[in-house]
Amino acid sequence: MATHAQRERLLLADLLERSGPDAPTLCEGWKTRDLAAHVVVRERRSDAAAGALIPQLAPRLDRVRGEFAAKPYPELIQLIRTGPPRLSPFSVKQLDEISNTVEFYVHTEDVRRAEPDWTPRVIDPVFGESLWKRLERGARLMGRRAPVGLVLRRPDGQTVVAHKGSPVVTVTGEPSELIMFALGRQTAAKVDVEGDELAVAKLYAAKLGM
Questions:
Q1: Of 62, 66, 75, 156, which one is least surrounded by beta carbons within 10 A?
Q2: Domain 131-205 listed as CATH 3.30.1050.20
Protein backbone atom coordinates (compact mmCIF):
# COMPACT_ATOMS: atom_id res chain seq x y z
CA MET A 1 0.00 0.00 0.00
CA ALA A 2 1.30 3.47 -0.88
CA THR A 3 2.23 5.78 1.95
CA HIS A 4 0.68 9.22 2.32
CA ALA A 5 3.83 10.81 0.94
CA GLN A 6 3.91 8.51 -2.07
CA ARG A 7 0.26 9.18 -2.83
CA GLU A 8 0.65 12.95 -2.51
CA ARG A 9 3.78 12.83 -4.67
CA LEU A 10 1.84 11.28 -7.55
CA LEU A 11 -1.09 13.66 -7.08
CA LEU A 12 1.31 16.60 -7.25
CA ALA A 13 3.09 15.27 -10.33
CA ASP A 14 -0.21 14.62 -12.12
CA LEU A 15 -1.54 18.07 -11.25
CA LEU A 16 1.63 19.83 -12.37
CA GLU A 17 1.51 17.89 -15.63
CA ARG A 18 -2.12 18.82 -16.29
CA SER A 19 -1.59 22.45 -15.33
CA GLY A 20 1.38 23.02 -17.60
CA PRO A 21 4.54 25.01 -16.82
CA ASP A 22 3.03 28.50 -16.63
CA ALA A 23 0.06 28.08 -14.31
CA PRO A 24 -0.16 30.24 -11.16
CA THR A 25 0.59 28.97 -7.66
CA LEU A 26 0.13 30.33 -4.15
CA CYS A 27 3.91 30.61 -3.81
CA GLU A 28 4.72 34.26 -4.39
CA GLY A 29 6.61 34.78 -7.64
CA TRP A 30 6.43 31.12 -8.66
CA LYS A 31 4.60 29.49 -11.51
CA THR A 32 4.21 25.74 -11.76
CA ARG A 33 7.60 25.37 -13.46
CA ASP A 34 9.30 27.10 -10.51
CA LEU A 35 7.43 24.96 -8.00
CA ALA A 36 8.40 21.79 -9.84
CA ALA A 37 12.05 22.88 -9.85
CA HIS A 38 11.87 23.56 -6.11
CA VAL A 39 10.60 20.04 -5.41
CA VAL A 40 13.29 18.43 -7.55
CA VAL A 41 16.15 20.49 -6.07
CA ARG A 42 14.96 19.78 -2.53
CA GLU A 43 15.19 16.03 -3.15
CA ARG A 44 18.14 15.79 -5.50
CA ARG A 45 20.49 18.64 -4.62
CA SER A 46 20.90 18.74 -0.86
CA ASP A 47 24.04 20.83 -1.34
CA ALA A 48 21.88 23.62 -2.74
CA ALA A 49 18.64 22.96 -0.83
CA ALA A 50 20.37 23.99 2.41
CA GLY A 51 20.02 27.56 1.15
CA ALA A 52 16.40 27.48 2.30
CA LEU A 53 17.68 27.43 5.90
CA ILE A 54 21.09 29.11 5.66
CA PRO A 55 20.92 32.66 4.27
CA GLN A 56 24.54 32.60 3.10
CA LEU A 57 23.69 29.69 0.79
CA ALA A 58 20.51 31.23 -0.62
CA PRO A 59 22.19 32.59 -3.78
CA ARG A 60 23.44 29.11 -4.63
CA LEU A 61 19.95 27.69 -4.11
CA ASP A 62 18.45 30.32 -6.40
CA ARG A 63 21.02 29.58 -9.09
CA VAL A 64 20.55 25.80 -8.98
CA ARG A 65 16.78 26.11 -8.87
CA GLY A 66 16.94 28.37 -11.91
CA GLU A 67 19.03 25.78 -13.74
CA PHE A 68 16.45 23.10 -13.04
CA ALA A 69 13.58 25.40 -13.98
CA ALA A 70 15.22 25.81 -17.38
CA LYS A 71 15.03 22.06 -18.05
CA PRO A 72 12.22 20.65 -20.20
CA TYR A 73 9.07 20.67 -18.09
CA PRO A 74 8.18 17.00 -18.76
CA GLU A 75 11.63 16.07 -17.42
CA LEU A 76 10.92 17.89 -14.14
CA ILE A 77 7.58 16.12 -13.79
CA GLN A 78 9.20 12.75 -14.36
CA LEU A 79 11.87 13.47 -11.74
CA ILE A 80 9.14 14.26 -9.22
CA ARG A 81 7.11 11.19 -10.14
CA THR A 82 10.01 8.75 -9.93
CA GLY A 83 11.24 10.14 -6.62
CA PRO A 84 14.69 10.82 -5.20
CA PRO A 85 17.85 8.92 -6.15
CA ARG A 86 18.90 5.97 -3.99
CA LEU A 87 21.57 7.95 -2.15
CA SER A 88 19.15 10.69 -1.12
CA PRO A 89 17.92 10.63 2.49
CA PHE A 90 14.41 10.94 1.07
CA SER A 91 14.77 7.50 -0.52
CA VAL A 92 14.31 6.00 2.95
CA LYS A 93 10.60 5.23 3.18
CA GLN A 94 10.17 6.38 6.77
CA LEU A 95 12.03 9.66 6.22
CA ASP A 96 10.09 10.25 3.02
CA GLU A 97 6.84 9.89 4.94
CA ILE A 98 7.96 12.21 7.74
CA SER A 99 9.46 14.87 5.49
CA ASN A 100 7.28 14.84 2.40
CA THR A 101 3.68 14.17 3.43
CA VAL A 102 2.98 17.79 4.33
CA GLU A 103 5.38 19.14 1.68
CA PHE A 104 3.58 17.44 -1.19
CA TYR A 105 0.09 18.02 0.20
CA VAL A 106 0.66 21.75 0.60
CA HIS A 107 2.30 22.17 -2.79
CA THR A 108 -0.56 20.29 -4.45
CA GLU A 109 -2.91 22.76 -2.82
CA ASP A 110 -0.64 25.64 -3.87
CA VAL A 111 -1.48 24.76 -7.46
CA ARG A 112 -5.13 23.85 -6.93
CA ARG A 113 -6.03 26.90 -4.87
CA ALA A 114 -4.38 29.36 -7.21
CA GLU A 115 -7.21 28.67 -9.65
CA PRO A 116 -10.32 30.85 -9.22
CA ASP A 117 -12.80 27.95 -9.33
CA TRP A 118 -11.06 25.54 -6.95
CA THR A 119 -13.06 23.41 -4.54
CA PRO A 120 -11.85 21.75 -1.31
CA ARG A 121 -10.55 18.20 -1.56
CA VAL A 122 -12.25 15.44 0.37
CA ILE A 123 -9.61 14.35 2.89
CA ASP A 124 -9.98 10.85 4.26
CA PRO A 125 -9.95 10.63 8.07
CA VAL A 126 -6.72 8.62 8.26
CA PHE A 127 -4.85 11.22 6.21
CA GLY A 128 -6.45 13.99 8.25
CA GLU A 129 -5.13 12.42 11.45
CA SER A 130 -1.67 12.16 9.90
CA LEU A 131 -1.72 15.86 9.07
CA TRP A 132 -2.93 16.70 12.58
CA LYS A 133 -0.05 14.79 14.18
CA ARG A 134 2.44 16.70 12.06
CA LEU A 135 0.72 19.96 12.94
CA GLU A 136 0.93 19.13 16.64
CA ARG A 137 4.67 18.50 16.36
CA GLY A 138 5.46 21.50 14.21
CA ALA A 139 2.92 24.12 15.27
CA ARG A 140 5.31 26.20 17.39
CA LEU A 141 7.85 26.34 14.58
CA MET A 142 5.19 27.25 12.03
CA GLY A 143 3.71 29.92 14.27
CA ARG A 144 6.91 31.40 15.68
CA ARG A 145 6.50 34.63 13.69
CA ALA A 146 2.87 35.16 14.65
CA PRO A 147 2.45 38.70 16.04
CA VAL A 148 -0.33 37.55 18.40
CA GLY A 149 -1.25 34.46 20.36
CA LEU A 150 -2.33 31.70 18.00
CA VAL A 151 -4.41 28.65 18.86
CA LEU A 152 -5.29 26.07 16.21
CA ARG A 153 -8.46 24.09 16.89
CA ARG A 154 -10.16 21.18 15.20
CA PRO A 155 -13.97 21.06 14.94
CA ASP A 156 -13.96 18.32 17.61
CA GLY A 157 -12.29 20.70 20.06
CA GLN A 158 -8.71 19.37 20.01
CA THR A 159 -6.30 22.28 20.10
CA VAL A 160 -2.64 23.11 19.76
CA VAL A 161 -0.94 26.36 20.73
CA ALA A 162 1.14 27.61 17.81
CA HIS A 163 2.25 30.82 19.53
CA LYS A 164 1.89 32.14 23.05
CA GLY A 165 0.89 35.75 23.35
CA SER A 166 -1.90 38.24 23.85
CA PRO A 167 -4.40 38.92 22.44
CA VAL A 168 -5.21 35.40 21.29
CA VAL A 169 -6.65 34.47 17.92
CA THR A 170 -8.27 31.04 17.59
CA VAL A 171 -8.38 29.43 14.17
CA THR A 172 -10.78 26.52 13.73
CA GLY A 173 -10.82 24.08 10.84
CA GLU A 174 -10.00 20.60 9.64
CA PRO A 175 -6.35 19.55 10.03
CA SER A 176 -5.81 19.91 6.28
CA GLU A 177 -6.96 23.53 6.41
CA LEU A 178 -5.09 24.37 9.61
CA ILE A 179 -1.88 23.09 7.97
CA MET A 180 -2.43 25.49 5.08
CA PHE A 181 -3.06 28.37 7.47
CA ALA A 182 -0.06 27.63 9.68
CA LEU A 183 2.24 27.33 6.67
CA GLY A 184 1.48 30.84 5.48
CA ARG A 185 -1.50 30.27 3.19
CA GLN A 186 -3.89 32.12 5.50
CA THR A 187 -6.16 33.63 2.86
CA ALA A 188 -6.51 30.33 1.01
CA ALA A 189 -7.43 28.23 4.07
CA LYS A 190 -11.05 27.36 4.77
CA VAL A 191 -11.16 28.18 8.47
CA ASP A 192 -13.15 30.14 11.04
CA VAL A 193 -11.23 32.82 12.94
CA GLU A 194 -12.11 34.27 16.34
CA GLY A 195 -10.36 37.17 17.98
CA ASP A 196 -9.87 40.91 18.16
CA GLU A 197 -10.28 42.47 14.72
CA LEU A 198 -6.87 44.15 14.75
CA ALA A 199 -5.18 40.98 16.01
CA VAL A 200 -6.81 38.95 13.24
CA ALA A 201 -5.64 41.46 10.64
CA LYS A 202 -2.09 41.27 11.97
CA LEU A 203 -2.19 37.48 11.86
CA TYR A 204 -3.34 37.43 8.25
CA ALA A 205 -0.53 39.79 7.29
CA ALA A 206 2.15 37.76 9.08
CA LYS A 207 4.61 35.46 7.31
CA LEU A 208 3.76 32.20 9.04
CA GLY A 209 5.42 28.93 8.20
CA MET A 210 8.79 27.21 8.25
A1: 156
A2: yes
